[in-house]
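## tool: complex_structure
## caller: assistant
## args:
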Amino acid sequence: MTGGEGGHDALFDRAPDDRVRVLDESGALVGTPPDMSDAELVEIYRHMRLARHFDERAVTLQRQGRMGTYPPMAGQEAAQVGSAVVLDDEDWIVPSYREHAAVHVHGLSLSEILLYWMGHGAGGWGADANVFPAAVPIATQIPHTTGLAMASKLGGCGGEDGGVSGNRPQAGDAVACAYFGDGATSEGDFHEGLNMAGVFDVPAVFVCNNNGWAISVPRERQTASPTLAGKAAAYGIDGVQVDGMDPLATYRVMRAAVEKARDPDERPRPTLIEAVQYRFGAHTTADDPTVYRDESEVAAWRKRDPIPRLERFLRETGRLDDDRIDEIEADVRAQVAAAIERAEATARPDPETLFDDVYAVRTAELDRQRATMRRLRDRYGDDAFLRD
Amino acid sequence: MSTDTRNLTLVQAVRDGLEIEMHRDEDVIVLGEDVGKNGGVFRATEGLYEEFGKDRVIDTPLAESGIIGTSIGMAAYGLRPVPEIQFMGFIYPAFDQIVSHAARLRNRSRGRFTCPLVVRAPYGGGIRAPEHHSESKEAFFVHEPGLKVVIPSTPADTKGLLASAIRDPDPVIFLEPKLIYRAFREDVPAGDHTVPLGEAAVRREGSDVSVYTWGAMTRPTVEAAETLADEGIDCEVIDLRTLSPLDRETIVESFEKTGRAAVVHEAPKTGGLGGEITAILQEEALLYQEAPVKRIAGFDTPVPLYALEDYYLPSSTRIEEGIREAVEFP
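## result:
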């Protein structure tokens, strides 16, 4: 597959507020569609449907007390799916905590994602996928992404002593992709990470999922910069704004950015993508957005929902019909139900695992503390610890 | 002082304390992430934005280093900023500003510039929060000369200590035990109310063993003391309230009476304040000592995800067991 754009210039040589679009709100073509097969297009649709259903179930699980605090992503599926499908297995995703769809596309199972939000340390990171643990402190993953890309460029992170165990290829062309929100662009780590990426000319893509709100603070109170994409100019790298609720536009921009990262040509390699979108729900299940934003704003953005938009395009171009949609719906429901079942069937972790993986080799003091726990549990049972 | 009281939770006492100080002194301003229109993610600043306006209750961009750094500038130039860091686990981007600048501005300028600010942050575990939301790293800040560190354990103390912290001429790290933000209510003096910094509170008098604690661990420690009383062990429970400077006099006085001690904190054991308190007892009251000082603390592991957090936090059983060891020695 090619970038489909006849070179990247058309995508990157544009004003920061010249938003890349392919589908409008109604699903009509307003830009060049990416060069993709029918199956690939339907797969993006299926992933978005899966993400939406997963998200709805996850919020319900939290409400039912079956899961802890959860950050919903409804509304943001297009930017996550449209970008993540571009990545190859050896590429890295370095996510924030709201990138459930992106990390799933890149290989993290749904039950692994659920386990993390169920407070279980076995979840949240990629056992077999190049997915970093979700960064909860804002923007902290951005310099990590630059570092992964530096290691990829230097070709030094494979093998026995590599930073990751097991299956890392030696290849120096893996791309590192950070996902973060609009609020993250105000943090020092955003500046430092992008600045170094520009200086070292690394194969990285920085995807800013600008959903308009950092908890209660709107995008306009986050920065006086007219766009977030425009910040790239300060680092000497490309910055491009895309309709983040248009999966095909996101795909096109991401594809061009990844190709530029892999094959640098004469241009600086990293790219900042500002994917403009909206979070339909709360910041987390512990948040009440009605305190700080109007329902009318939410309603307006719901009209730009990426899923019906792509569905309509695919229907009208004969790529999708009722039967196929029903099939996808059933498939998505079954997949999410199975993931929930698997996560809930996973036993509470052995309390002694608390002492594992603090260091490569457990210290003598940790051994003593583990023995203390064991003695207390032998003597009093787990009720001595559990408050519920 | 007024004799009126209001029945408040701990987090309501934070809000009440802020409101009263903002009325008393128009130089007091609140700033941080989501503190304004949203009223704080724990509602600790609810209504203040409406009452005092956007220039005194400032919603900032997401930038902890920037929040503290700008607070330092404001404090040096006459304001009394009370910045909020949303959770203690997110304080680290501001660490450089706190320890390299806030803590030593006075010292570096030989008193010309000062930094009267209060950094508020919810701290501690036990609420099934996501990762990085349950840290208890008070020892980092106690270790830094020039800072004061305060942790209340009751609503009335919260209001009184916060007022004292805001009026204090030096930077104060004010850590709020979010596990007990809404756990109970008590009568809190209405209007002006201060509790002096640097003074511990004896929560239960006893003669067999001195138990030192603070913040959210105070309640389970008092409960453990009551259980142990039935076994004939008479605990003196001391809530330190201010961790820097420590109330050495109260710490030592109690130990001279009992000769035995335990320290309870939820922070990791190694390098925690339990070690400092033990050292104080060694320095000041060695000849009274009848048993090793027992430290009952969080384990030396990262705070686990919530499925295991009960195993990490000192429970009443662990506290009772530890105190028994201190009492039964040898």
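## assistant note: Chain A touches chain B through 52 residues (CB under 8 Å). The two ends of chain A are 55 Å apart (CA to CA). Handing back to user.
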